[in-house]
Amino acid sequence: MPKLVPELSDLAVRRLTYSTIKGDPRIPESRRKNRVGMPCTALHAVGGVSGLLLQCRPPANENSPIGARSWILRTMIGGKRTDIGLGGYPDVTLSMARAKAREIKAKVRDGIDPTAERKALRSAIAASRASAVTFRELAKEYIAKKSKEFKKSSAAKQRRKLEMHLESYAYPYLGNVVVGDIERAHIVKMLEPIWETKTETASRLRMSVERILDLAGVKGLRSGDNPARWTGNLALSFPAKEKVAQVQHFAALPVGEIPEFMQKLRAANGVGARALEFLILTACRSSEVRKATRSEVDFDTNTWLIPADRMKMGREHRVPLTDSSIKVLNEMSDLSEYLFPNRNGDPVSDVMLGKVIKQLGYKVTSHGFRSTFKDWAIEHTEFADEISELALAHVNSDKTRAAYARSDALEKRRQLMEAWANYCYCDASL
Q: 142 with 215: CB under 8 angstroms?
């Protein structure tokens, strides 16, 4: 027969406190004398419900004379003694503790494990909190991951650009919305104000949002179709960007005007003029030319190797140098590591190249000469299109172009660039 415990009153429960260690003959004398009288945790049966105990802990310090007190229900679950916490006293009163204890014991009788039930509830709450991620929070994670793909030289700039892009156009509509709650209507509302006025910006914004929501799907934060998807979705709500915005190309010089331009450029003095001349002869990008160093040029083989971290596509690029290109380099001072340094020894600026063009009386851009080169290659040569594409360091997925790319067709490109130089100076004497 289990021992009957008298049912304590509220007043009796308030008087319960921690205990002290008593002398025990089973404990060696050397240990007993050091422990006897020390405070220790006490468990008091309060009655009313079998197994209901008030746990009284010793005070943590002198400022807390009572110590912490809490309710415990000691019961058998699956043949194993289990202690279940019911909360702290006096926040959980005696009557509340007895009610909780009776509820739990009733579940045990019905074959329900209340401890497993609690774990499931905690897991559900944790899962709910995990899924309540806002678009802004997930966007930050996406940017952090995406930043690792950027070139080291421009990673900080590109990251800041993406952050500002989302800050300006996405966050006002999506920032505080839980990613799992974002619907097509949210995306439409975000894009409507800028789709026809800032079409290219809106298009890039849509793609960024789509990728962020794709990440949400991968992480299990949302299900179903991506509301930022274009095909079969947003395409039904907006006109195609090609219909509302003209693609802005870099201003380029007509092919037929190149010889005259090069003649004027050859007569111009200064580092900017020589850098621009070299840029045209190599059909390279402005940044590739301006930041070029002497260590990148092999004067024995007349080859310039641009490292991957300075290339737009992240792949190193070999450039065959013609006699005309080498002549330009030989006219430059070898006192700086850069081929085209300014007065401070730093790379010449793109602004300076623009000033040279303006001073010659033309309204084109330095980048536009790549387009002029491409037009010349198509209209005036019999070289395969793949060769000029390789010269421009364009990445192509086409199988034929990929075959050329594996070998980079250096000698074929050298012939192409010699023909280009001859055309550029066909009315000028070097």
A: yes
In a domain, 332, yes or no: yes
Cis peptide before 59 (omega within 30 of 0): no
Please say whether the beta carbons of 206 and 230 come within 8 A.
yes
Residue with tokens 């996406």, as numbered in its chain = 142
Q: Write out the E strands in 111-175.
A: none
* Domain count for the chain: 3
State the Rg of the chain over Cα.
39
Report pTM. Answer: 0.48
The neighbouring-strand residues paired with 56 are: 42, 69
Looking at the structure, tell me whether residues 273 and 238 fall in a common domain. Answer: no
Task: Report if residue 331 sits inside a domain.
Answer: yes
Instruction: Give, in order, the Cα–Cα distances in Å from 407 to each of 285, 303, 401.
Output: 22, 15, 10
Strands 39-40 and 42-45: unpaired
Find where tokens 């066909």 sit: 426
Tell me the two tokens of residue 3: 């021992």
Q: Note down the domain range covering 179.
A: 135-244
Question: Which of 56, 91, 95 has its CA nearest to residue 72?
Answer: 56
List, in sequence order, the alpha helices (H) in 219-340.
241-244, 258-267, 271-282, 286-290, 323-330
N- to C-terminal Cα distance for the chain? 117
pLDDT attached to residue 128: 57
Among 224, 244, 264, give the residue marking a domain's end.
244
Can you give the pLDDT at residue 273? Answer: 95
Tokens of 226: 């991506």
139 & 122 share domain:
no
Which tokens in the block code for residue 119? 């774990």
- Which CATH number fits the domain that encloses residue 412? 1.10.443.10
Same domain, 283 and 203: no
List of residues 6+ apart from 321 with CB closer than 8 A: 282, 297, 302, 303, 304, 329, 417
- Domain co-membership, 343 together with 377: yes
Low-confidence ranges of the chain (pLDDT < 50): 1, 247-248, 397, 399-401, 428-430
Query: Is 429 within a domain?
Result: no
In this structure, which amino acid lies at residue 245? A
